[in-house]
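re: ur question from the group chat, yeah i did fold both. here u go
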Amino acid sequence: MSKFIDAAATSHTLSVVAMEEASRFGQRSTDIDHMLLALVVSEQVAGQVLRSAGITLEAARDAVAGQHSAQLASLGISTELPSQGRIVFHETGGYVWSDRALEVLKRASDGEKPGDAAAVLRELVAEPSGMIDQILQRLGFAPDLVIARLDEVQRYPALTPKRTIQSGRRSGAVGAFVPAGLEQVWDLLANPSRMSEWEPTIGEVALNKTQKEAQIGDRWTVHSRTRRSDGKPIRIKPEFRTQNVELVACTDETLIEWQFTYPDSTQADAKRLRIELEPAAGGTQLSISLKWERNSNRPAHPIRGLLIRPLVRFGIWMQLSQLSGGISRAFR
């Protein structure tokens, strides 16, 4: 991808996760401390460097809370911080970056800087308020060591996501990090009854009560989500309100692949979703592949397909982003 696309993708992903963290405290202004928390669970080099130092999301949250308490105490203010709740970002609105957080994102892509998560982490460490410096010290990770680790890791070629499903104009793949153990993540992904917890289009799964464990070839009927997390209705055509889900591949705690079809539509394409899992420091690393398979009953429009190809690729990326975000959010 180009520098612009990389920077835009990083900005979007960090924004969503950071604002989710802010929402846990009922805050709408998202600051640099929330940005640091988002980096801790980033699948990019920055997240790998932080986690390799033993920094977990829970530890980082505690360090942020401790820093805020210390700052208030230094001003002679003795008060309890807002209690931490669940993520409500998708149920609410009005979230914005603080001025200094926006400045960090801007500096991370200035000139020859790539705008990726590592560049953002470098700018956070150098941020003039010193907040991130002090939080890292609370975590036992000296800021200069952060830079040294980034320098060391970035000397080597960057790892790219696995693409088990062949990449093309109607498919794609992303890497993702989940702050939970392999067994926990597998239980979420391999349990059909929990699919609505992470798959954004699914609202309800109709299960066979006599079935104990999913087997390859098993199928389920699911009902598409009709309301957003904030309660607003989703307009869905009648033929897309029901989906059939089939388990097409499964290797215990290693990979799982699902196929989604719309039985009430004669021309709807099928969606294949494959997720590979492997243990990683502080959690589980995922490789998520998504492919739309063309329905042979649907007329081909090659010229139109060529014209809308950039929109299709963007749509695939957004779907992958929502899927990876949904899985991660289930454990945060």
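okk and heres the other one u asked abt
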Amino acid sequence: MKYAMKKMTLATASASMILLAGCATTHEPSNELTELQTRYNSVVSSQNLEEYAPVAFDEAGKSIARLETLENDGADDYELEHQQYLAERKLDTAIELAKHNRSQEYIDDADVRRKDLMLQARERDLTQAEREAAFMKSRAEAAEQRAEMAVARANSMEEKASQMASKLESVTTKLDKRGLVITMGDILFATDESEVKPGAVRTLEKVSDLLAEYPDREILVEGFTDSTGAADYNKNLSERRAEAVVKQLVDNGLAEDRLSAKGYGEEYPVASNDTAAGRQQNRRVELVVANKDDKAVDDRVAQR
């Protein structure tokens, strides 16, 4: 039990920072910060995972404390969202690393148990003892593999999406608190149309190829327009465009039950509608891929 016997001073210090943070501020913490603190406190005080990765949990605790400091200091939205993303990733990494180390302890324990069984086999069936030891070890090794795969999957999709976007015109990617966002600029539709242009079908095929590698990730397709024309018309057009992209993705082989569509019209502009270049940037479709398997994409929250 080599991990369990270590002193957990670093992780304990981080836990104390988060558990006591509320006593030193007059600022009402955001829902995101509260959720992070609650999750962190759960794993360090209830699940006892911190004993398997004290340094990683210490870094996660400091990152969460940094987010609280930024909130109290009135930092801007970009800095807060960036720090929240860092804190979430550090906490996810700490949890996965702890699970990995715990799995290694299981393997070590299984080896000890196997040796004990070998000795006991002098008085009973040796073959049965070997089978039991082999089963215990294989189960621990399987747990270790799952932990390693979870860490790898957390990084692979973002990297592959970035590589894909670099090869496609008017396609960009970024990672935010809702998930991986794939933005497709004003290339999919003709003016006032909601049918995918033939020239854009190949681009959606490339996107589909990437998404097919992650069949358990849910996807929200969001449509946006510029401010030209009536707001009701723009909202309806953006909804039809989002639904057209969903249909094309299904035609490309993606499961329909993991896809949903929503249109926002001229809401949530990313540039000024006072210029032609700005309006072109606002005419876009965004595919938001959930952060985790079997988890719905959170609804868009208005920019503060």
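fwiw on the second one: The longest helix spans residues 77-120. Confidence is low (pLDDT under 50) at residues 1-13, 18-25. idk if thats what u expected
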